[in-house]
Amino acid sequence: MAQVRRRGKNKYTISIYLGRDEYGKRRYHYETFHGTLTQAKLRAAELEVKLKHHTGPKQAAMSLGKYLEMWLQKIKGTVTERTWETYEWHVRRLIPVVGHLQLYNLTALSLQDALQSLQGLSPRTMRGIYGTLKTALRQAVVWGILGTDITAGLRTPRMPRKQRHVLTSNELAQLLDAAKGYKHYLVIRLLALTGMRLGEVLGLKWGDIDFDKHTITVCRSVDTRRRRLKPEGDETKTISSARTFTLDAETLVLLRQKKQEEKVTPLNKDDTLIFGFGDKPMGEDAIRKTLARALKKAGLPKMRIHDLRHTSGSILLDQGVPLPVVSAWLGHSSTATTAAVYAHAVRNNNNVLNLSGADKKADKTQRSQN
Asked: Do 64-153 and 169-351 fold alike per CATH?
């Protein structure tokens, strides 16, 4: 029940009993109100209804910061380790700017105003932080902590369209030619010709190659940040990521040579990483340096490792390969993802390499068999 006590001229303290906490201690919500006694009583009645219906008794006095901390702990183990760490990173940046807000009177407007304090972050990071906040608040509705979902009114910052740098067929041929002789040429070649993610290439084992059928199968991935294989159940990014590629003759020759050089024995051949040291996958920095040197040697502009994947997907689309086939090739969970990421990169057919081998400087690739 709400109580109103006078504290001075046109100044009142409103107190509302919230029930007992898990330790049996009485809890109250207090608010100082300036105005007439009648107005104070109206405010007390309004506040009492809001506290009872917007949040439960135990959560009424909970701050958003405290809730986000609780949410992190409760979802731990229900999402992948890397996802949880991303959530935690976002929450650490959210708490200083929105942690003081109280759940009982939380609105999209109050959140939007508080979030303006986030400074010095890229648009992509900002969108990630907003996404984490929305996920947490929607879970609060599911748990009955919040009565309504206010995230619909939260405006996510616009992210300017980033121009991805992709190579033409001739440029790809130049890059692969320049990369020959470098220690990690085979990694660069696989990335460019298959469109695999770096973690997928580094997670390949000798048992994934069928030299008789000329195929290589993606069935696991590496956490490149920690340089370790992802745990069981989280081996690949999506279910669709598990796929098989048909390899060209030159790539198969290079793989055979590497296998012979490393003296892989029948006892350990299937479970040994192709690009690693024992159970330790190769580091991303070594690949990045090789790519940078090869690009410079070929006279091509700088690009990220992941842009080799974009190059592969873009060339396939430019050659008229159907979107569903390209989506399966890249291991996307849906064709919508492929269309959103690669539609802007499609160029004229006469500017790209025919992957079936029309350009002698290019390497042959064939569509994956899924």
From this structure: no
